């Protein structure tokens, strides 16, 4: 009642004397025109909250941080949680590197606190709870598709314990992403989809795109440069790439209304900062941006120094006299090639038939003179039996021995294969990793209702520290735009990058499901006819039956019977 | 009082008789039909395990109301919350219309007031974001893309491979694994009115789930009986839009069930209209006309079930819709549409104030934290191999070694044992 009264009078809150834990919300949209004419928009919504979920007394007052996620963190003792839902595949060669990479389908990786005693049981409960929160079938994550990487997926937040016993990673490449996943995701935002940048998130436009990815990242971060206090950071990110021909009608002329069918009218009132960044580094003289803005900013992101035009939505004059902001971006295509990304990967299945096959993973290093190490993580389901003795790693035609291999063999119906390798990629080369496999025959109840579609193998993950052309910013707490501060940077000469390959679709030998019925009919018929005949032959006795005599004889027999004489 | 005890015993005896349970309970329900009001009283007594005082109160109230001849008031529904379970059981793109059917009922039910937390929506396949859909994130019910029933605010609880007969029956009976989230549970109680809508491909006595399994009408009837015995519903409306849908409600035997079907046994339910841009049939006829009927209903509407039975006559539907009300205790004319499709929300205004306790200020330890190195190459290369858990040797290994030892000792003689031990 006190709070309500205070709000009604619009006074600065004269509430309780003790201060509440501070929470802060920032929202940001980065728009990057791509070389191929498509346009890439990346939303990031970050909530920082200085509280401790792990203490005894439970947190009870939630303001900007969503309560459902806060309860998940405290109940399951989660240290870090990263979940992403992606529709489409990121084409690195045409679009460059994304700000936040994600594999097709659903991906979930979690670091638990070291106070958890049974990690597997907690993981199973966590996936069930998350499937209810995000309306996704995450309950299909079980031991057959969960792995425990030994060197990849180090925590992105602060911490000094990295015992990989507390890490679990799983992907569901088959998971469909649609409005029913976007709806609960939007409900986690403090302003919902009513104000601020989230107004632009309309499903009919977002899903009519080449690539759509929404993710939630929760981790503890440093509050200040001394890093003596930590706060919990919740980042909700949404990356979307609109196609030039599908949504853009073939013209390199994009506006907010064309992309999202909405314009912006105000910033989220709960946000401390609400900004739009347009990347104008490429072809600056042919670039047209309206309404014009004088704010420019530079940021070191993805190993490059990029220049951005900034629109600050918390300033009223950004919206102009019409009280709405509709950015118009126009550029001409340049004839030159795009700067090739330094690290790129592909994967495909080779072979023929339904018995054996071969998985080929190609990793490209496009740097002209520097070589760098990459960590390859492969998780293959148990029904593709890998022959690890056929594993070969070749670069430029020569054998390239990995400096670290961790292999955990699969167990039928219990766990998948896990292969992690640290490979040094020579400069300007292609490294090929091949391994042969054999396809297993599943039990007939284990097939999905549409088995002829095929079975998915999750994407490989390639993590690497790629040398950068400019000195990266290692100061983690200076005021930086959100898109450049996701991966922590420890040294200036390289930046961390994670590349996902395509998922594979393999056909397993599929039985004809009408056969049980056919077999039962056939067997029963054969048994009935065969056994029935045999039974009759064995158990019935045969009697000779005389044919019935003619009429004359019958009359004669009747007379003879009357006479008392034996018949003819 | 004695009579009600006797009746109670009689009822339990009949129910417990496993041999011909179906027939006896059906007979019992026939008797219910005949002596409608009397039996309502009996049921009231047998169900209420309340003190006698309340029973006598009800009895006197019953008498006074009968004498006042305001029977309509007395038979008003006694539910306090509404639930809906909407299931689409078909997979593949050419079954677009079944998903559109379910979503149009979902849309009506949400519009009339039932919140997402009280709706369990099961869609066996994704049509909106299917790659064949020319307009992604939309599911249309009228051709020329007039009405998008998918909308912008939809929460699907069971999707894709999760829509199985087992999950459906577990949702109905409440026997779900303990880690199932709330949005996937049907948390109804004995004062809940539940709407159950099924659509897909069906036949005489069964409904096909995802082209690989089916649910029979006997299983469904038993599931409803389980719900009744566990007091999971007050009244239940069952609507089914499949071929030969009336066969699915033939076997019901629990009280307070009302059922509607789009076609009789031996008839097929037909689809309504194709959209040439999308390339598939958009809706089934029965649900199309049901949607049109429901669009005219608003939360304060007084339309009753008799209007619902008239939806889609044979001239529009080609098949003959059927309904079953013999197990339902109230007169269908007194049952409002919003009793099942809308939501009753009772608001209690209180003037009490609650004192909030002050939050406790905690003092944290201050020590330096740091970010972890993402790719510590030297650390990875020199990583100690994990201590593998020691497992006792497998039966196979033991057998193999025993065989080797046996062969060895057989060949070379037992005297060599001396050298080993």
Automatic annotation (TrEMBL), chain A:
Pfam family membership, one: Gpi16
Show the segment(s) annotated as Disordered: 1-22
Tell me the Gene Ontology biological-process terms attached to this UniProt entry: attachment of GPI anchor to protein
Q: Which GO terms describe its cellular component?
A: GPI-anchor transamidase complex
Q: Which InterPro entries match?
A: PIG-T
Name the chain's protein. Phosphatidylinositol glycan anchor biosynthesis, class T
What species was this sequence derived from? Amphiprion ocellaris (Clown anemonefish)
Lineage, broadest ranks: Eukaryota, Metazoa, Chordata, Craniata, Vertebrata
UniProtKB/TrEMBL annotation, chain B:
Keyword annotations of the record: GPI-anchor biosynthesis, Membrane, Signal, Transmembrane, Transmembrane helix
GO CC term, one of those recorded: GPI-anchor transamidase complex
Annotated TM spans? 395-414
- What pathway is this protein said to act in by its record? Glycolipid biosynthesis; glycosylphosphatidylinositol-anchor biosynthesis
Residues spanning the signal sequence: 1-18
List the InterPro entries: GPI_transamidase, Peptidase_C13
Annotated GO biological processes are: attachment of GPI anchor to protein; GPI anchor biosynthetic process; proteolysis
Q: Where is the active site?
A: 201, 243 (nucleophile)
A single MF term (Gene Ontology) = GPI-anchor transamidase activity
Q: Which domain of life is it from?
A: Eukaryota
Q: Name one Pfam family in it.
A: Peptidase_C13
User: Subunit info?
Assistant: Heteropentamer. Part of the GPI-anchor transamidase complex, consisting of PIGK, PIGT, PIGS, PIGU and GAA1. Interacts with GPAA1. Interacts with PIGT; this interaction, via a disulfide link, stabilizes the expression of GAA1 and PIGK and links them to PIGS.
Family, according to the entry, reads as follows: Belongs to the peptidase C13 family.
Write down what this protein is called: GPI-anchor transamidase
To which species is this protein native? Amphiprion ocellaris
